[in-house]
Amino acid sequence: QVQLVESGGGLVQAGGSLRLSCAASGRTSSSYAMGWFRQAPGKEREFVAAIASSWSGGWTYYADSVKGRFTISRDNAKNTVYHQMNSLKPEDTAVYYCAAALHPTTWYRGDEYDYWGQGTQVTVSS
Q: Binning pLDDT at 50, 70 and 90, where does residue 55 land?
């Protein structure tokens, strides 16, 4: 059982940066792959980024829309995954959700994830 709590959202100007954090409960959280999804008003939830568990290689995967701007990382000692977002654009405005998957197969599919956080709002002004 894993519980996830996101933090770090807020209001920033276009071109600015934010770092989101996702704190995971449990001592086995390092065994999970972690992902970030987002949902803007009137739009479907979309994949943003994912990072594999450290024992499986710790590789990362990004949506094309954020590649080169966002970086996902994890600190297993703190049971925390981070999402560094640079060069933010107004279209990045959304509620960002942290998710954990024990046995993922397709990183960009939300139904591959077992646990979800409550979300944190990111608003980018123009």
A: confident
